Every structure is written in structure tokens, then in C-alpha cells.
């Protein structure tokens, strides 16, 4: 026993932690009984427990985490060590951030995912670069592929997707300049609309608002109409002078908390373009409400907070700008060098913003404009469910899902 204690002192606590962190968890209980110094190092190292428990937590196997905890407990003869292990685990779960919570992950069977649209409380629909549409469901703490994918006739890359209010039909747009109406239950393409190339879409009731390689934001009426003889009505919105890259809808939430829409009759839209401007539109009146300068870079993504009071724009050089949408004033800037911001999304807590880029998913604290977390992987889409309980992230061929509950950053 004395020799073991001397050896641990010679090696030092840092080296001992490194050794313990790479040993089987089942051996921790026996090791803690070999000598008091080893027991002290094991109990006193949060890094060992964070490494063990959070490694499985991030990788997405809740069952594996629970098995790990049970295996540890059954191996531990030292009750103090068991208590410490459980406390460390629960502290990590309670203090999890967005990227720590990416516990559900599934690789799609057909190409990189370009966009995801949350559906209802626990489902999502994705579109891919191989022309396929797939439905997913969060069930029993896993992300499951619900049924066979639907492939559009041209097999063109699909850039965005929206789902109607009945949750039965989806409209997706492709690089072949077509819209496709898809029956999600019947798993088939119902109609094809020939149109201009569309980059991004957002739904407002039965309307679809789009951005495209041109200076015009468009409102489409009739895209969800299954009547084969129905014609589309297109309403152009003028507010830019160059390519419109991104668009999002700010929904009027009845008598709820949406601050911005109270003075207007219906939903609003926010758009970003290569002319370095962000524009705000009244969709019911089809009129421009204001323009905000995001110079000196092209705007590639936009988002609005859940209460509609704040907007965000991401540009081609890694800068994220914040806007007061009531006064149209610039209120803050967050910078990441040389990253094209593909996707933005406000968290339901109102003080956190997610930014997806070529290099990863950044979590920003809006109270001090600091990056607090980063997930290294190319991100193409970041979307919260309507209730804000689930976060879906597209990363290459992977769809990641976070079951957040109440965020605490």
C-alpha cells in the first residue's frame, strides 16, 4: 500500500488523471480500494468523470450512458466514489449546452442534407442534395427514419423544404428551378411547378415566401393546392437590388408575446441579400417596412427571435449582426473570421443565438456577445420546433436532434 502511494505521488495527479481517463470504467471501484491516494485522485478529478460521461452523452446513446452508470455502480465498493460519480453525471446533465445535448443522431441514406423542417412536436422532414425527401421522428429517445424516402423525378439537389398546416404535405425547391408538392403520408410527388430558381423558403399559413437569384422576394399562393388545374399566384416584393439569399417569416401569434407584429395585420418576413441589406416586409399588405444596412458583406442568412423583437443576419465573412426590428437599428455584432454563415436560429430563451457555418455550430450569448460553445462540423441548417423543445441540425449526411427543455447557459 505504501509503495502504491509513493508511486502515485511520483507520477503526480495530472499524469494519474490521464491514465485513469483511459482505463475501463469497471476498474475504478477496485482501483479506489488499492490506495488512498488513487481514491483521492479519482474522487477529486471532474475531468475524468466529464470525459467518461459526456463522451457518451455527446455521441448520442442514452442507453449506453445509463448502462455505463449502472456498470460503474455495480463495480464500486466505495460508496463515496459511487455518490461522486452520480453527482458528477447529474451536474453535467443539468448544465448541458446545445452541443452537449446533441444526443440523437442518424445518417441519412441519400446524400448530404441541405435543410430540415420541424413538423409538430416530435417530427422533422429533410431534403438532400440527391433529390430526396425523408421523414424523421423522435421516439423512445432515438431519432428514427419513418418511411421510405421520396425522390423527385429530376433527382436535382433540393435546397429547402416547408410543410403545410395539416402536416400532410410538403413543398420543396430544387436546383432544377422546380417546386415539388409531396404527399408525406402517401410518399409520392403530387405536383411539379416550373418556376424560377429558389434558394430559400419560409411558410406563412398557406403562403410560401421565397428568396432567389434576383432582387425580388416572392409570395406564392397555391403551392399546397392539390388540384391539378390550380394555378399559382405570385406576388413580388421589392426591397433589394441584388440576389436575395435568405428569408424567414415572423409569425403573428394571436394575442401572445410577439412584439413586432402587434401593429400589423398578419405575418412579417425578413430577408437578406447580396446588396448588403436586410429588409423587413408586411406580408398581408405586400409592402416594404424598412431596410437595414449590413455592410460591408453579402447577407447569406437571417433569423428572428421567438417574440419577433430581434433579428439576426449572417454574412459571407463570418459576421453576425443583431437588429432591433421595431426601430430597425443595429444593436450588436459578433464575428468569426472567414466563415460563411449558412444558418441562424434564436433559442427560445431569448438570450442565445445559434450560428451554423462551413466550420461548425457556434452558440452565442447575446447578453455579452460572446461565443460560449462550438460544435466542429459543417452546418447547413439549424431549426427549432414550433414549441422550441427540439432543435434539429443538418450536418453533411447527418441529422442531429437535441431535446433541450429549458436552456441554461
Please count the beta strands (DSSP E, at least 2 residues each): 29
Distance between the termini: 44 Å
Radius of gyration: 25 Å
What is the mean pLDDT? Answer: 77
Helix coverage percent: 10-25%
Major sheet: size, sense and barrel closure? 5 strands, antiparallel
SS strand fraction: 35-45%
Which ranges are low-confidence, i.e. pLDDT below 50, for 5 or more consecutive residues?
1-9, 53-79, 88-103, 405-409
**Helix-and-strand structural type:** alpha+beta
**Number of helical stretches of at least 4 residues:** 7
> What sort of overall outline do the alpha carbons produce when their principal axes are compared?
globular
In short:
The protein has 409 residues and is an alpha+beta fold. It is built from seven helices and 29 strands. Strands 2, 3, 4, 5 and 6 form a five-stranded antiparallel sheet that branches.
Any overview of this molecule?
19% of the residues lie in helices and 41% in strands. With 409 residues, the chain is an alpha+beta fold. The chain is globular. The protein has 7 helices and 29 strands. A hairpin with a 5-residue loop joins strand 23 and strand 24. The strands form 7 sheets. Strands 2, 3, 4, 5 and 6 form a 5-stranded antiparallel beta sheet that branches. The protein has a 4-stranded antiparallel beta sheet with strand order 1-29-28-27, with no helix packed on it. A 4-stranded antiparallel beta sheet has the order 7-8-9-10, with no helix packed on it.
Amino acid at each position: 500500500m505504501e509503495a502504491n502511494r509513493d508511486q502515485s505521488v511520483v507520477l503526480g495527479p495530472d499524469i494519474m488523471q490521464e491514465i485513469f481517463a483511459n482505463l475501463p470504467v469497471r476498474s475504478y471501484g477496485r482501483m479506489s480500494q488499492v490506495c488512498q491516494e488513487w481514491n483521492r485522485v479519482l474522487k477529486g478529478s471532474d475531468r475524468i468523470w466529464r470525459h467518461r460521461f459526456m463522451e457518451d452523452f455527446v455521441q448520442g446513446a442514452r442507453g449506453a450512458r445509463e448502462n455505463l452508470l449502472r456498470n460503474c455502480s455495480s463495480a464500486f465498493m466505495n460508496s463515496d466514489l459511487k455518490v461522486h460519480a452520480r453527482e458528477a453525471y447529474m451536474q453535467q446533465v443539468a448544465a448541458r449546452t446545445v452541443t452537449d445535448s446533441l444526443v440523437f443522431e442518424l445518417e441519412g441514406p441519400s446524400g448530404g442534407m441541405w435543410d430540415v423542417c420541424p413538423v409538430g412536436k416530435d417530427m422533422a422532414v429533410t431534403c438532400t442534395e440527391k433529390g430526396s425527401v425523408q421523414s424523421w421522428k423522435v421516439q423512445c429517445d432515438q431519432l428514427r427514419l419513418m418511411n421510405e424516402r421520396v425522390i423527385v423525378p429530376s433527382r436535382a439537389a433540393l435546397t429547402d423544404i416547408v410543410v403545410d398546416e395539416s402536416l400532410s404535405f410538403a413543398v420543396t425547391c430544387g436546383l432544377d428551378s422546380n417546386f415539388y408538392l409531396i404527399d408525406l403520408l402517401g410518399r409520392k410527388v403530387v405536383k411539379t411547378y416550373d418556376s424560377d430558381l429558389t434558394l430559400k423558403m419560409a411558410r406563412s399559413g398557406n403562403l410560401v415566401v421565397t428568396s432567389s437569384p434576383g432582387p425580388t422576394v416572392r409570395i406564392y399562393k397555391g403551392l399546397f393546392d392539390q388540384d391539378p388545374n390550380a394555378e399559382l399566384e405570385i406576388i413580388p416584393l421589392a426591397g433589394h437590388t441584388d440576389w436575395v439569399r435568405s428569408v424567414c417569416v415572423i409569425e403573428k401569434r394571436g394575442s401572445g408575446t410577439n412584439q413586432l407584429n402587434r401593429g400589423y395585420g398578419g405575418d412579417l418576413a425578413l430577408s437578406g441579400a447580396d446588396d448588403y441589406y436586410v429588409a423587413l416586409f408586411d406580408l398581408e399588405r405586400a409592402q416594404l417596412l424598412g431596410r437595414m444596412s449590413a455592410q460591408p458583406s453579402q447577407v447569406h442568412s437571417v433569423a428572428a427571435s421567438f417574440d419577433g423583437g430581434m433579428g439576426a443576419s449572417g454574412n459571407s465573412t463570418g459576421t453576425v449582426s443583431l437588429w432591433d426590428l421595431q426601430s430597425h437599428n443595429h444593436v450588436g455584432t459578433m464575428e468569426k473570421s472567414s466563415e460563411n454563415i449558412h444558418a441562424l436560429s434564436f433559442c427560445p430563451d431569448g438570450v442565445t443565438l445559434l450560428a451554423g457555418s462551413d466550420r461548425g455550430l457556434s452558440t452565442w450569448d447575446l447578453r455579452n456577445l460572446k461565443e460560449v460553445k462550438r460544435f466542429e462540423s459543417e452546418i447547413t441548417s439549424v431549426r427549432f420546433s414550433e414549441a422550441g423543445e427540439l432543435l434539429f441540425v443538418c450536418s453533411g449526411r447527418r441529422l442531429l436532434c437535441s431535446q433541450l427543455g429549458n436552456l441554461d447557459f
